[in-house]
Design brief:
Length: 411
Protein backbone atom coordinates (compact mmCIF):
# COMPACT_ATOMS: atom_id res chain seq x y z
CA UNK A 1 0.00 0.00 0.00
CA UNK A 2 1.22 3.55 -0.66
CA UNK A 3 0.57 5.70 2.43
CA UNK A 4 1.09 9.46 2.67
CA UNK A 5 1.80 10.64 6.21
CA UNK A 6 1.57 14.41 6.71
CA UNK A 7 3.82 15.92 9.40
CA UNK A 8 7.31 14.88 10.58
CA UNK A 9 6.87 15.48 14.30
CA UNK A 10 6.99 12.70 16.88
CA UNK A 11 3.61 11.23 15.89
CA UNK A 12 4.19 11.26 12.10
CA UNK A 13 7.70 9.85 12.35
CA UNK A 14 6.58 6.91 14.53
CA UNK A 15 3.65 6.27 12.21
CA UNK A 16 5.89 6.26 9.10
CA UNK A 17 8.38 3.97 10.86
CA UNK A 18 5.78 1.34 11.74
CA UNK A 19 4.23 1.37 8.27
CA UNK A 20 7.66 1.03 6.63
CA UNK A 21 8.53 -1.88 8.90
CA UNK A 22 5.49 -3.73 7.66
CA UNK A 23 6.52 -3.26 4.04
CA UNK A 24 4.33 -0.33 3.02
CA UNK A 25 5.53 2.38 0.68
CA UNK A 26 5.49 5.61 2.70
CA UNK A 27 5.78 9.25 1.66
CA UNK A 28 6.26 11.60 4.63
CA UNK A 29 5.48 15.22 3.79
CA UNK A 30 6.74 18.06 6.00
CA UNK A 31 6.63 21.80 5.37
CA UNK A 32 9.71 22.53 7.52
CA UNK A 33 13.29 21.72 6.53
CA UNK A 34 13.86 19.01 9.18
CA UNK A 35 11.85 16.85 11.61
CA UNK A 36 10.47 18.01 14.98
CA UNK A 37 10.39 21.73 14.28
CA UNK A 38 6.77 22.01 15.49
CA UNK A 39 5.37 21.16 18.91
CA UNK A 40 7.71 18.18 19.22
CA UNK A 41 10.76 20.47 19.46
CA UNK A 42 10.84 21.59 23.11
CA UNK A 43 8.26 19.46 24.91
CA UNK A 44 8.86 18.28 28.45
CA UNK A 45 9.54 14.58 27.91
CA UNK A 46 6.98 12.88 30.16
CA UNK A 47 5.98 9.43 28.89
CA UNK A 48 4.06 8.15 31.84
CA UNK A 49 2.08 5.98 31.69
CA UNK A 50 0.45 7.34 34.85
CA UNK A 51 1.64 10.92 34.34
CA UNK A 52 -0.25 11.15 30.99
CA UNK A 53 -2.09 14.49 31.18
CA UNK A 54 -5.81 15.16 31.17
CA UNK A 55 -6.96 18.70 30.37
CA UNK A 56 -8.97 18.98 33.59
CA UNK A 57 -9.59 17.13 36.80
CA UNK A 58 -13.01 15.46 37.30
CA UNK A 59 -15.80 17.67 38.57
CA UNK A 60 -17.66 16.34 41.56
CA UNK A 61 -21.38 17.01 41.54
CA UNK A 62 -23.21 18.36 38.51
CA UNK A 63 -20.76 19.08 35.73
CA UNK A 64 -21.72 22.17 33.81
CA UNK A 65 -20.30 25.15 32.04
CA UNK A 66 -19.92 26.99 35.35
CA UNK A 67 -17.48 24.37 36.63
CA UNK A 68 -15.08 25.30 33.85
CA UNK A 69 -14.73 28.84 35.09
CA UNK A 70 -13.19 27.63 38.32
CA UNK A 71 -9.78 28.05 36.70
CA UNK A 72 -6.72 26.36 38.05
CA UNK A 73 -3.44 28.21 37.77
CA UNK A 74 -2.08 25.34 35.69
CA UNK A 75 -4.62 25.72 32.88
CA UNK A 76 -6.18 28.98 31.72
CA UNK A 77 -8.56 29.51 28.81
CA UNK A 78 -9.99 32.18 26.62
CA UNK A 79 -13.72 32.72 27.01
CA UNK A 80 -14.50 34.20 23.61
CA UNK A 81 -17.82 33.25 21.97
CA UNK A 82 -16.13 31.02 19.38
CA UNK A 83 -14.63 29.03 22.18
CA UNK A 84 -17.84 28.38 24.16
CA UNK A 85 -18.83 25.19 22.35
CA UNK A 86 -15.48 23.63 23.18
CA UNK A 87 -15.69 24.74 26.82
CA UNK A 88 -19.16 23.17 27.08
CA UNK A 89 -17.78 19.87 25.74
CA UNK A 90 -14.90 20.17 28.20
CA UNK A 91 -17.32 20.71 31.08
CA UNK A 92 -19.22 17.54 30.08
CA UNK A 93 -15.97 15.58 29.89
CA UNK A 94 -15.36 16.49 33.56
CA UNK A 95 -18.37 14.56 34.89
CA UNK A 96 -16.92 11.91 37.19
CA UNK A 97 -17.99 8.80 35.20
CA UNK A 98 -16.94 10.14 31.82
CA UNK A 99 -13.64 11.43 33.20
CA UNK A 100 -12.80 8.07 34.81
CA UNK A 101 -13.56 6.19 31.56
CA UNK A 102 -11.44 8.61 29.49
CA UNK A 103 -8.64 8.48 32.04
CA UNK A 104 -8.63 4.68 31.91
CA UNK A 105 -8.44 4.76 28.10
CA UNK A 106 -5.63 7.33 28.17
CA UNK A 107 -3.52 5.35 30.65
CA UNK A 108 -4.13 2.11 28.72
CA UNK A 109 -2.87 3.69 25.49
CA UNK A 110 0.08 5.33 27.29
CA UNK A 111 1.04 2.03 28.92
CA UNK A 112 0.91 0.23 25.57
CA UNK A 113 2.86 3.05 23.96
CA UNK A 114 5.63 3.17 26.59
CA UNK A 115 6.19 -0.58 26.17
CA UNK A 116 6.41 -0.17 22.38
CA UNK A 117 8.79 2.81 22.71
CA UNK A 118 11.13 0.79 24.88
CA UNK A 119 10.91 -2.12 22.44
CA UNK A 120 11.60 0.11 19.41
CA UNK A 121 14.51 1.77 21.22
CA UNK A 122 16.04 -1.66 21.91
CA UNK A 123 15.45 -2.97 18.38
CA UNK A 124 16.79 0.16 16.67
CA UNK A 125 19.52 0.77 19.24
CA UNK A 126 18.21 4.22 20.14
CA UNK A 127 19.10 5.97 23.39
CA UNK A 128 16.85 8.87 24.37
CA UNK A 129 18.16 10.10 27.72
CA UNK A 130 15.57 7.94 29.45
CA UNK A 131 15.10 8.33 33.16
CA UNK A 132 12.85 6.30 35.46
CA UNK A 133 11.03 7.65 38.48
CA UNK A 134 8.69 10.53 39.19
CA UNK A 135 8.22 12.36 42.48
CA UNK A 136 4.93 14.18 42.98
CA UNK A 137 5.76 16.80 45.57
CA UNK A 138 3.04 18.09 47.92
CA UNK A 139 3.29 21.51 49.53
CA UNK A 140 -0.39 22.10 50.29
CA UNK A 141 -2.02 20.52 53.34
CA UNK A 142 -5.43 20.03 51.76
CA UNK A 143 -4.07 18.48 48.55
CA UNK A 144 -1.78 16.21 50.53
CA UNK A 145 -4.69 14.90 52.59
CA UNK A 146 -7.03 14.54 49.62
CA UNK A 147 -4.37 12.74 47.60
CA UNK A 148 -3.88 10.26 50.43
CA UNK A 149 -7.60 9.68 50.88
CA UNK A 150 -8.67 9.22 47.28
CA UNK A 151 -6.34 8.49 44.44
CA UNK A 152 -7.86 9.33 41.08
CA UNK A 153 -6.07 6.41 39.42
CA UNK A 154 -4.65 3.21 40.82
CA UNK A 155 -1.07 4.25 41.44
CA UNK A 156 1.99 2.04 41.44
CA UNK A 157 3.72 4.27 43.96
CA UNK A 158 4.87 4.85 47.49
CA UNK A 159 4.06 7.71 49.85
CA UNK A 160 7.18 9.34 51.31
CA UNK A 161 7.63 11.93 54.07
CA UNK A 162 9.55 15.14 53.24
CA UNK A 163 12.68 13.73 54.93
CA UNK A 164 12.45 10.47 52.98
CA UNK A 165 11.94 12.42 49.76
CA UNK A 166 15.02 14.59 50.35
CA UNK A 167 17.06 11.50 51.14
CA UNK A 168 15.98 10.05 47.80
CA UNK A 169 16.60 13.26 45.85
CA UNK A 170 18.85 15.76 47.71
CA UNK A 171 18.12 18.48 45.10
CA UNK A 172 14.82 19.02 46.97
CA UNK A 173 16.53 20.24 50.11
CA UNK A 174 15.62 23.88 49.45
CA UNK A 175 11.91 23.37 48.77
CA UNK A 176 10.24 26.02 50.97
CA UNK A 177 8.07 24.90 53.88
CA UNK A 178 5.49 23.48 54.17
CA UNK A 179 7.03 20.52 52.33
CA UNK A 180 4.69 17.72 53.30
CA UNK A 181 5.95 14.75 51.35
CA UNK A 182 5.72 13.06 47.99
CA UNK A 183 4.36 10.21 45.97
CA UNK A 184 7.25 8.26 44.48
CA UNK A 185 6.40 6.45 41.25
CA UNK A 186 9.50 4.47 40.27
CA UNK A 187 8.13 3.06 36.98
CA UNK A 188 7.29 6.39 35.37
CA UNK A 189 9.43 7.12 32.33
CA UNK A 190 10.72 10.44 30.97
CA UNK A 191 13.15 11.17 28.16
CA UNK A 192 14.04 13.22 25.14
CA UNK A 193 11.20 12.55 22.70
CA UNK A 194 12.52 14.83 20.02
CA UNK A 195 15.88 13.06 20.08
CA UNK A 196 14.22 9.63 19.97
CA UNK A 197 12.16 10.70 17.00
CA UNK A 198 15.12 12.20 15.12
CA UNK A 199 17.00 8.92 15.38
CA UNK A 200 13.95 7.01 14.19
CA UNK A 201 13.73 9.37 11.24
CA UNK A 202 17.40 8.76 10.34
CA UNK A 203 16.63 5.04 10.22
CA UNK A 204 13.43 5.64 8.24
CA UNK A 205 15.42 7.38 5.53
CA UNK A 206 18.65 5.34 5.61
CA UNK A 207 17.40 1.78 6.13
CA UNK A 208 13.69 1.72 5.50
CA UNK A 209 13.42 3.53 2.15
CA UNK A 210 11.14 6.34 3.28
CA UNK A 211 10.29 8.90 0.61
CA UNK A 212 10.85 12.11 2.58
CA UNK A 213 9.62 15.44 1.26
CA UNK A 214 10.76 18.45 3.32
CA UNK A 215 9.91 22.04 2.31
CA UNK A 216 6.57 20.72 1.03
CA UNK A 217 3.19 21.84 2.30
CA UNK A 218 -0.04 19.91 1.82
CA UNK A 219 -2.66 22.41 0.71
CA UNK A 220 -5.69 20.12 0.45
CA UNK A 221 -6.89 16.53 0.29
CA UNK A 222 -7.85 15.12 -3.11
CA UNK A 223 -11.27 13.47 -2.96
CA UNK A 224 -12.79 11.41 -5.76
CA UNK A 225 -16.42 10.44 -5.21
CA UNK A 226 -16.32 9.40 -1.53
CA UNK A 227 -12.63 8.46 -1.25
CA UNK A 228 -9.45 10.40 -0.45
CA UNK A 229 -7.02 9.44 -3.19
CA UNK A 230 -4.09 11.73 -2.43
CA UNK A 231 -3.01 15.24 -1.50
CA UNK A 232 -2.46 18.51 -3.31
CA UNK A 233 0.88 20.04 -2.26
CA UNK A 234 2.56 23.31 -3.18
CA UNK A 235 4.76 21.18 -5.46
CA UNK A 236 1.87 19.36 -7.15
CA UNK A 237 -0.50 16.44 -6.49
CA UNK A 238 0.59 13.10 -4.98
CA UNK A 239 -1.62 10.04 -5.22
CA UNK A 240 -1.82 7.34 -2.51
CA UNK A 241 -4.05 4.53 -1.22
CA UNK A 242 -4.20 6.02 2.28
CA UNK A 243 -3.57 9.49 3.75
CA UNK A 244 -2.73 9.87 7.46
CA UNK A 245 -2.96 13.34 9.01
CA UNK A 246 -0.23 13.56 11.67
CA UNK A 247 0.17 17.26 11.34
CA UNK A 248 -1.18 18.52 14.66
CA UNK A 249 -2.60 22.07 14.29
CA UNK A 250 -2.24 21.92 10.49
CA UNK A 251 -4.94 19.22 10.34
CA UNK A 252 -7.71 21.69 11.13
CA UNK A 253 -7.62 23.48 7.78
CA UNK A 254 -7.14 20.23 5.82
CA UNK A 255 -10.25 18.73 7.44
CA UNK A 256 -12.44 21.74 6.66
CA UNK A 257 -15.35 20.68 4.47
CA UNK A 258 -14.58 16.98 5.14
CA UNK A 259 -14.95 16.37 8.86
CA UNK A 260 -15.86 18.42 11.91
CA UNK A 261 -14.09 17.35 15.10
CA UNK A 262 -14.18 19.42 18.31
CA UNK A 263 -10.63 20.54 18.96
CA UNK A 264 -8.74 23.51 20.30
CA UNK A 265 -5.22 24.87 20.31
CA UNK A 266 -3.40 24.38 23.61
CA UNK A 267 -0.29 26.48 24.23
CA UNK A 268 2.43 25.59 26.69
CA UNK A 269 5.89 26.82 27.60
CA UNK A 270 9.15 25.22 28.66
CA UNK A 271 12.34 26.57 30.19
CA UNK A 272 15.57 24.60 29.70
CA UNK A 273 18.80 25.05 31.65
CA UNK A 274 22.12 23.26 31.71
CA UNK A 275 23.26 21.32 34.76
CA UNK A 276 26.87 22.26 35.57
CA UNK A 277 29.30 20.36 37.84
CA UNK A 278 28.63 22.95 40.58
CA UNK A 279 24.90 22.13 40.65
CA UNK A 280 23.08 19.65 42.88
CA UNK A 281 21.60 17.40 40.17
CA UNK A 282 17.94 16.43 40.14
CA UNK A 283 17.60 12.62 40.16
CA UNK A 284 13.95 12.08 39.23
CA UNK A 285 11.26 13.81 37.24
CA UNK A 286 9.44 16.18 39.58
CA UNK A 287 5.88 17.41 39.70
CA UNK A 288 5.13 20.14 42.24
CA UNK A 289 1.41 19.64 42.67
CA UNK A 290 0.61 23.06 44.06
CA UNK A 291 3.16 25.16 42.19
CA UNK A 292 2.33 24.41 38.53
CA UNK A 293 5.86 23.30 37.92
CA UNK A 294 7.04 20.05 36.41
CA UNK A 295 10.68 19.24 35.85
CA UNK A 296 12.28 16.59 33.66
CA UNK A 297 15.90 15.60 33.46
CA UNK A 298 17.13 15.36 29.86
CA UNK A 299 20.78 14.31 29.88
CA UNK A 300 22.72 17.25 31.31
CA UNK A 301 19.77 19.64 31.13
CA UNK A 302 16.65 20.29 33.18
CA UNK A 303 13.39 21.18 31.47
CA UNK A 304 10.56 22.96 33.25
CA UNK A 305 6.90 23.20 32.18
CA UNK A 306 3.56 23.42 33.91
CA UNK A 307 1.44 26.31 32.64
CA UNK A 308 -1.00 25.94 29.72
CA UNK A 309 -3.47 28.09 27.85
CA UNK A 310 -6.49 26.87 25.89
CA UNK A 311 -7.63 28.93 22.89
CA UNK A 312 -6.26 32.14 21.42
CA UNK A 313 -3.40 33.80 23.29
CA UNK A 314 -3.57 37.36 24.42
CA UNK A 315 -0.74 39.81 23.90
CA UNK A 316 2.36 39.47 26.17
CA UNK A 317 1.01 36.40 27.94
CA UNK A 318 4.21 34.53 27.13
CA UNK A 319 6.55 36.95 28.95
CA UNK A 320 4.39 36.91 32.07
CA UNK A 321 4.05 33.11 32.21
CA UNK A 322 7.73 32.46 31.54
CA UNK A 323 8.64 34.91 34.28
CA UNK A 324 6.31 33.20 36.78
CA UNK A 325 7.64 29.74 35.91
CA UNK A 326 11.21 31.00 36.13
CA UNK A 327 10.68 32.56 39.57
CA UNK A 328 8.95 29.44 40.81
CA UNK A 329 11.67 27.02 39.75
CA UNK A 330 14.44 29.30 41.07
CA UNK A 331 12.75 29.18 44.49
CA UNK A 332 12.14 25.43 44.43
CA UNK A 333 15.42 24.21 42.92
CA UNK A 334 17.86 27.12 43.23
CA UNK A 335 21.01 24.97 43.14
CA UNK A 336 20.01 22.47 40.46
CA UNK A 337 20.79 24.18 37.14
CA UNK A 338 22.27 27.32 35.60
CA UNK A 339 18.86 29.06 35.62
CA UNK A 340 20.10 32.56 34.62
CA UNK A 341 21.34 31.13 31.30
CA UNK A 342 18.15 29.17 30.59
CA UNK A 343 16.32 29.27 27.26
CA UNK A 344 12.54 29.46 26.68
CA UNK A 345 10.26 27.75 24.21
CA UNK A 346 6.56 27.92 23.38
CA UNK A 347 4.68 25.05 21.73
CA UNK A 348 1.12 24.58 20.47
CA UNK A 349 -0.81 21.35 20.24
CA UNK A 350 -4.28 20.29 19.18
CA UNK A 351 -6.47 18.86 21.93
CA UNK A 352 -9.94 17.30 22.11
CA UNK A 353 -12.29 17.91 25.06
CA UNK A 354 -11.91 14.34 26.35
CA UNK A 355 -8.06 14.59 26.31
CA UNK A 356 -7.85 11.48 24.10
CA UNK A 357 -6.24 11.55 20.63
CA UNK A 358 -8.06 11.02 17.34
CA UNK A 359 -6.32 7.93 16.06
CA UNK A 360 -7.92 5.78 13.41
CA UNK A 361 -10.17 5.67 10.35
CA UNK A 362 -12.68 8.38 9.50
CA UNK A 363 -15.99 7.99 7.68
CA UNK A 364 -14.15 9.00 4.49
CA UNK A 365 -12.46 6.08 2.75
CA UNK A 366 -8.68 6.43 2.60
CA UNK A 367 -8.49 9.10 5.33
CA UNK A 368 -6.98 8.31 8.75
CA UNK A 369 -6.21 10.69 11.62
CA UNK A 370 -3.37 10.76 14.13
CA UNK A 371 -4.02 14.10 15.82
CA UNK A 372 -5.32 15.71 19.02
CA UNK A 373 -2.69 14.24 21.34
CA UNK A 374 -2.77 17.32 23.56
CA UNK A 375 0.01 17.11 26.11
CA UNK A 376 0.77 13.45 25.41
CA UNK A 377 1.99 13.39 21.81
CA UNK A 378 5.25 11.65 22.46
CA UNK A 379 3.86 9.46 25.23
CA UNK A 380 1.25 8.12 22.81
CA UNK A 381 3.16 8.22 19.52
CA UNK A 382 4.29 4.59 19.29
CA UNK A 383 0.95 3.25 20.55
CA UNK A 384 -0.98 5.35 18.02
CA UNK A 385 1.38 4.26 15.23
CA UNK A 386 0.72 0.63 16.08
CA UNK A 387 -3.06 1.13 16.26
CA UNK A 388 -3.05 2.88 12.89
CA UNK A 389 -1.01 0.14 11.25
CA UNK A 390 -3.54 -2.50 12.36
CA UNK A 391 -6.54 -0.40 11.36
CA UNK A 392 -5.07 0.40 7.92
CA UNK A 393 -4.29 -3.28 7.34
CA UNK A 394 -7.71 -4.37 8.62
CA UNK A 395 -6.20 -6.36 11.51
CA UNK A 396 -7.39 -6.44 15.11
CA UNK A 397 -5.28 -4.14 17.31
CA UNK A 398 -3.82 -5.32 20.62
CA UNK A 399 -5.87 -2.74 22.52
CA UNK A 400 -9.45 -1.57 21.97
CA UNK A 401 -9.24 1.25 19.37
CA UNK A 402 -12.78 2.57 19.97
CA UNK A 403 -12.01 5.21 22.67
CA UNK A 404 -9.61 6.93 20.25
CA UNK A 405 -11.73 6.71 17.09
CA UNK A 406 -12.02 10.08 15.32
CA UNK A 407 -15.69 9.21 14.75
CA UNK A 408 -16.53 9.08 18.50
CA UNK A 409 -17.63 12.72 18.39
CA UNK A 410 -20.32 12.13 15.77
CA UNK A 411 -22.14 9.57 17.95
C1 LIG B 1 4.85 22.91 26.82
C2 LIG B 1 4.54 21.56 26.28
C3 LIG B 1 5.00 20.44 26.94
C4 LIG B 1 4.71 19.17 26.46
N1 LIG B 1 5.19 18.09 27.13
C5 LIG B 1 4.91 16.84 26.67
C6 LIG B 1 5.40 15.71 27.36
O1 LIG B 1 6.08 15.82 28.36
N2 LIG B 1 5.11 14.47 26.86
C7 LIG B 1 4.35 14.32 25.74
O2 LIG B 1 4.10 13.18 25.34
N3 LIG B 1 3.86 15.39 25.06
C8 LIG B 1 4.12 16.64 25.52
N4 LIG B 1 3.63 17.74 24.87
C9 LIG B 1 2.77 17.52 23.72
C10 LIG B 1 3.59 17.18 22.50
O3 LIG B 1 4.58 18.17 22.34
C11 LIG B 1 2.71 17.13 21.26
O4 LIG B 1 1.56 16.36 21.51
C12 LIG B 1 3.47 16.48 20.13
O5 LIG B 1 4.69 17.16 19.91
C13 LIG B 1 2.66 16.50 18.86
O6 LIG B 1 3.44 15.89 17.90
P1 LIG B 1 3.00 15.91 16.40
O7 LIG B 1 4.02 15.15 15.65
O8 LIG B 1 1.60 15.44 16.27
O9 LIG B 1 2.97 17.46 16.05
P2 LIG B 1 4.18 18.50 15.63
O10 LIG B 1 5.41 18.19 16.36
O11 LIG B 1 3.58 19.83 15.78
O12 LIG B 1 4.39 18.12 14.15
C14 LIG B 1 3.45 18.41 13.13
C15 LIG B 1 4.24 18.69 11.88
O13 LIG B 1 3.34 18.84 10.80
C16 LIG B 1 3.86 19.82 9.93
N5 LIG B 1 2.73 20.31 9.15
C17 LIG B 1 1.61 20.91 9.61
N6 LIG B 1 0.75 21.15 8.60
C18 LIG B 1 1.36 20.70 7.47
C19 LIG B 1 0.98 20.67 6.12
N7 LIG B 1 -0.19 21.14 5.71
N8 LIG B 1 1.86 20.13 5.22
C20 LIG B 1 3.06 19.63 5.62
N9 LIG B 1 3.45 19.64 6.90
C21 LIG B 1 2.60 20.16 7.82
C22 LIG B 1 4.45 20.86 10.86
O14 LIG B 1 5.43 21.63 10.21
C23 LIG B 1 5.03 19.99 11.97
O15 LIG B 1 6.40 19.70 11.76
C24 LIG B 1 3.91 19.02 25.30
C25 LIG B 1 3.44 20.15 24.63
C26 LIG B 1 3.76 21.41 25.09
C27 LIG B 1 3.25 22.60 24.36
Amino acid sequence: MHVIVIGAGVTGTSCAHRLLENGHQVTLIESASSPNQGCSFGMAGFMGPLSASMLCSPFKGNAGLASIFAKTRRLGWDVSIGHMKFLRALANARSADKWQADRKALVELARYSVALTEFTARMENIGFEQNYGLLKIYTNEQEWETAHKEQAVPVAGEWLSAEETIRLDPSLENVPKPFLGSLYMPQELTGNGSFFSKQLQIQNVADKKLTMMYHTTVKSLIKETDTIVGVQTDKGPIKADVVVLSNNLGAKSLLEGHLNIPSQMLTGWTITAKVDPVNVPVKYALSFENKDIEVTKLGNRLRVCGRYWLGELTHDMTDKIIEEMYESVCKLLPMSAAWPESTNWMGQTLVHPDSLPSCGATNIKGLYLNIGHGLNGWALSEGCASLLLCLIEGKEPEIDPNPYSPMRFSK
